[in-house]
Amino acid sequence: MPLAARTGGLTALAGALLAGSLSTAPAPTPAASAPPLAGPRAEASALPGLDPDAPKADPAAVAARLAGALADPILGDPAALVVDALTGQVLVTHRATTPTAPASTIKIATATAALTALEPDTTLTTRAVYLPPAGGAATTPGGTLWLVGGGDPTLTASTGPAGYPPAARLSDLARQVRDAGITAVGTVIGDGTAYSGPTTATGWRDGYVSDGNVTPVSALEVDAGRSAPGAGGPRTPTPDAAAAGAFAAALGAVGVPVGTVAIGQADPAAHEVGSVHSPTIAVLVERMLTDSDNDLAESLGRQVAVARGLPATFDGAAQGVLGALRDAGIPTEGAVLRDTSGLSIDNRIAPATLVAALRTAVMPGHPALRTVLSGLPVAGFTGTLGDRYGAADTSSAAGVVRAKTGSLRIVTSLAGVVTDADGRLLLFGLFAPVEEQGLTKMALDRVATALASCGCPAASPPTRPALPGSSAPPLPQG
Question: What angle in degrees, to the nearest 10, is found between the helix axes of 438-452 and 59-70?
Answer without folding.
Answer: 160
